[in-house]
């Protein structure tokens, strides 16, 4: 383990994160909301902490190994979640406990969107902006940003990138150099954010709300500046803008890059994962619309269409925006929508869940095993887009699925042991490990009523989901720490 090199890298990343406290300072000054001091203090504390980590090892230049990259990523996300809570803790007019502050910070950075705040509309603009900004930074991954803008990270960049980016296949680079790859992804990310903000503004939002919601939409986060979320605007135009950009953000960003570079839509048509992604969301949307119509949940056909499509896409992509209390919908719909979040977005997107590519590989592997029962001696490869998938990748997907299910079950049982009922425990764990946000039962509106122990457990679940299970669990393996 390259401890000094890890400490140097960690110090640099922490100092970089401290500057995320400055945009809310500007917002506080602009709106004169009296919340400048908590952000200035947070900036100073995090900057000094990062500097003290970096100073003793500033001259160390040792190449990071993959194992070191995992340590930096996990350490940074955990400390980031704690550091991001500082402004919430220092607010005097809107006091929050340490547990609630950390929960809100972790939920923002992991783009989960679960909140413990029950009167969001009363918060100062700087705090509202900060919550949305945290999600935007966490969406693509602040460490990928670091690789893009800090050449000083040097050779270790690839190890960080592989440990941070989501999905079962992480070795494909869009450009020859990893720094250029990370920068290309951030250009696409920034471009989508700007386009989303403009569309929200045209659809009727004011400038502040348009910018704030573009952050959480493209990040697939789900935080809002209002208690009623997107439902506050009561606008079909706003909802459809959200649907379009949630769909785009749930796609593999590499596809956006390839389509832009080739000025062609062919990369989209040829991608099997994208076809499966749209098919799943299409089926869930159609089922939701039909059942809402049959149960006469809404009076007008327009409401049935817009509400059905919006909630199916929002929950299916793990964004978590709401326009209505979907958890009170009749029959099986709330559970169907919650289960769709387990599939989530595409690999290489800002979405959560297990990722569509893994779901697709599990289906294809299941089909192969069925065919082998009929033809025991047949050689039947698993293919994605006419290309055979190595057995190593298929095995890794099954291993991920097993770890995902085991983690979910164990943590859900622990939640139940803290006193939560079955529905609340199941939905809260599903919403947090899938980085979704809103759940069922007592966590339909917010997580404020949960006990502190449950909130810390859910914070761990958010990290598990954001870091794709193994990135975090590998640190608990004795083999990882052997020389």
Strand fraction equals under 5%
Net shape: globular
* Structural class category: mainly alpha
Low-confidence stretches: 151-158
Distance between the ends: 8 Å
Radius of gyration: 22 Å
Element order: H for helix, E for strand? HHHHHHHHHHHHHHHHHHEEHHHHH
Question: How confident overall, as mean pLDDT?
Answer: 88
Helix content: 55-70%
Largest sheet: 2 strands, antiparallel
Separate helix tally: 23
| Strands, total number | 2
- Strand arrangement in the largest pleated sheet: 1-2
Which short descriptors sum up this protein?
globular; mainly alpha; 483 residues; 23 helices; single chain
At a glance:
This protein has 483 residues and is an all-alpha fold.
Q: Describe it for me?
A:
The protein is an all-alpha fold and 483 residues long. It contains 23 helices and two strands. The chain has helices at 3-18, 22-31, 36-54, 66-83, 86-90, 98-109, 125-140, 142-149, 157-164, 178-203, 207-218, 236-249, 253-262, 266-269, 272-294, 301-316, 333-343, 356-374, 391-417, 422-433, 452-466, 470-473, 478-481; strands at residues 383-384, 387-388. A hairpin with a 2-residue loop joins β1 and β2.
Secondary structure topology:
Layout: H1 3-18, H2 22-31, H3 36-54, H4 66-83, H5 86-90, H6 98-109, H7 125-140, H8 142-149, H9 157-164, H10 178-203, H11 207-218, H12 236-249, H13 253-262, H14 266-269, H15 272-294, H16 301-316, H17 333-343, H18 356-374, E1 383-384, E2 387-388, H19 391-417, H20 422-433, H21 452-466, H22 470-473, H23 478-481
Helix pairs in contact: 1-3, 1-4, 2-3, 2-7, 4-6, 4-9, 6-7, 6-21, 7-11, 8-10, 10-11, 10-12, 10-13, 12-16, 15-16, 15-17, 16-17, 18-19, 19-20, 19-21, 20-21
């Amino acid at each position: 383990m390259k401890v000094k090199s890890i400490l140097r890298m960690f110090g640099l990343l922490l100092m970089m994160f401290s500057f995320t406290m400055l945009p809310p300072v500007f917002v506080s000054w602009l709106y004169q909301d009296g919340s400048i001091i908590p952000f200035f203090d947070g900036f100073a504390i995090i900057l000094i902490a990062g500097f003290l980590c970096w100073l003793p090892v500033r001259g160390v230049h040792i190449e990071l190994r993959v194992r070191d990259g995992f340590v930096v990523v996990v350490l940074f996300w955990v400390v980031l979640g704690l550091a991001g809570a500082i402004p919430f803790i220092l607010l005097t007019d809107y006091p929050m406990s340490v547990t609630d502050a950390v929960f809100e910070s972790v939920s923002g950075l992991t783009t989960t969107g679960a909140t413990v705040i029950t009167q969001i509309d009363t918060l100062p603009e700087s705090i509202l902006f900060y919550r949305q900004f945290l999600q935007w930074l966490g969406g693509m991954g602040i460490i990928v940003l670091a690789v893009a803008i800090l050449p000083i990270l040097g050779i270790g960049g690839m190890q960080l990138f592989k440990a941070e980016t989501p999905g079962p296949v992480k070795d494909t680079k869009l450009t020859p150099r990893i720094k250029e790859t990370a920068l290309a992804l951030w250009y696409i990310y920034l471009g989508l954010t700007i386009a989303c903000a403009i569309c929200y503004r045209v659809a009727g939002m004011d400038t502040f709300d348009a910018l704030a919601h573009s952050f959480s939409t493209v990040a697939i986060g789900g935080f809002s500046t209002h208690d009623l979320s997107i439902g506050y605007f009561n606008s079909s135009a706003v909802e459809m803008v959200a649907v379009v950009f949630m769909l785009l953000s749930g796609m593999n960003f590499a596809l956006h890059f390839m389509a832009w570079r080739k000025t062609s839509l062919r990369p989209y048509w040829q991608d099997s994962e994208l076809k499966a992604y749209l098919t799943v969301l299409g089926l869930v949307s159609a089922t939701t619309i039909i059942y809402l119509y049959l149960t006469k949940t809404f009076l007008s056909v327009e409401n049935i269409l817009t509400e059905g499509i919006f909630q199916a896409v929002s929950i299916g992509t793990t964004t978590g925006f709401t326009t209505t209390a979907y958890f009170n919908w009749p029959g099986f719909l709330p559970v169907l929508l919650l289960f769709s979040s387990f599939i989530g977005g595409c690999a290489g997107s800002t979405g959560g869940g297990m990722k569509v590519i893994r779901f697709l590989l599990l289906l294809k592997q299941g089909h192969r095993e069925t065919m082998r029962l009929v033809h025991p001696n047949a050689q039947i490869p698993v293919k994605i887009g006419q290309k055979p998938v190595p057995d190593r990748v298929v095995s890794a997907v099954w291993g991920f699925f097993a770890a995902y299910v085991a983690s979910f079950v164990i943590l859900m049982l622990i939640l139940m042991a803290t006193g939560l009922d079955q529905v609340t425990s199941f939905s809260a764990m599903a919403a947090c490990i899938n980085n979704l946000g809103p759940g069922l039962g007592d966590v339909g509106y917010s997580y404020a009523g949960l006990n502190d122990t449950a909130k810390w457990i859910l914070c761990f679940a958010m990290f598990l989901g954001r870091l794709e299970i193994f990135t975090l669990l590998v640190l608990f393996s004795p083999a990882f720490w052997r020389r």
